[in-house]
Amino acid sequence: MQLVRQNEEMASKGARGTEVPAASRERAGRPARRRRGRGRAVLAVLLVAAVGSGCATTESGEPAASGKPAGSADAGQGHGQRQGRDQGHPAAGAPNGQHGQHGKGEAGALSSNAEAVRAAQAARAVVAKKWGLAKTPLPTPAPPAVKPKITNREGFEIANEEEGENLPPVFTTVPVKDRVVFLTMDDGMEKDPELLRMMTELKIPYTAFLSDYVINDNYGYFKQMQDRGVTLQNHTLNHKYLPGLSYEGQRREICDQQDKLEKRYGKRPTLFRPPYGNYNGDTVRAAKTCGVKGLPLWTAEAYPDRMEWREWDKDLHPGDIILTHFRGRDDWNATMPDLIRAAMKRITDKGYAVARLEDYV
């Protein structure tokens, strides 16, 4: 693709006019009459040669049949390209310089997109300064056209899963190539309006896993969150230790919250996070019965003053899921914006952008 664009650009430059070679400039000093006579003779020879070699074009501007396809290597890299370089004509298969113009259009689009990204980052830098971030968050790459396949993390499988059950996977990271991590917030206890403004202005994506017992005093706060592009997922009705409940007890905690969130916010959650990260076979089976497609846990937990790691190397990796909670001064002696400032510094310092979990799962 790169070679084609280079040739097309050369063709388009030729179409606008090429510099006269030095040897031609030296011949330009000869008498005009002799030059015109010789020019007619040369033109006659060239016309005969063109007809004989099959290089003439049809009235439509397409190359006449020459015994080889127009798109063959010889046609594209031989006569057509040579004309584009030496005589200022389009390459073979590109009548009227259309390919050159197309190449220019692609280059222009890429340049325009790059300029838009730079402008967006410049605007984001202003907002980051306003909110007291140490660094501007890195731009989030485009999500994949096809979502990666999510499987159980090794050691997190259900021991007695039967063949064909197809239980939703339990995972702590998403298989990605980009240097992205995913920010998730649990329960919904603290409802800080500054968090909504901050995350919206900074364009930082995150996912909220909600428990009804702490959000039922202000459902409207999370509706505002949803309206700003945040996906609301399931964290049970009452945040109980699920393995201590019967199958039916677990199902009530999970599925009744599915119903409540769907009724309240118009969309049924597809992800479920068990309280404390604890689960058993009944948990996963119950979740499957009411539409859960995956159980994302986490690799690190963010606090205003530290990061607690679940991995032995105490570091971030592409696709890691970061947990934090809706808390405030009563629990942390810090605000939710304080938490975001600290977490984003760690994430950005390590060269990661924050992506939206649902774009990958």
TrEMBL record:
InterPro entries: Glyco_hydro/deAcase_b/a-brl (IPR011330), NODB_dom (IPR002509), Polysacc_deacetylase_ArnD (IPR050248)
Database matches in CDD domains: CE4_NodB_like_6s_7s (cd10917)
NodB homology domain mapped to chain residues: 179-361
Top-level division of the source organism's lineage: Bacteria
Sequence intervals crossing the membrane: none
SUPFAM superfamilies (UniProt xref): Glycoside hydrolase/deacetylase
Extent of Basic and acidic residues compositional bias: 1-11
Signal peptide: none
Molecular function GO labels: hydrolase activity, acting on carbon-nitrogen (but not peptide) bonds
PROSITE patterns in the record: NODB
Pfam families: Polysacc_deac_1 (PF01522)
GO biological process: carbohydrate metabolic process
Region feature Disordered, mapped onto this chain: 1-38, 56-113
PANTHER family recorded: GLYCOSYL TRANSFERASE-RELATED, SECRETED PROTEIN
Stated name of the protein: Polysaccharide deacetylase family protein
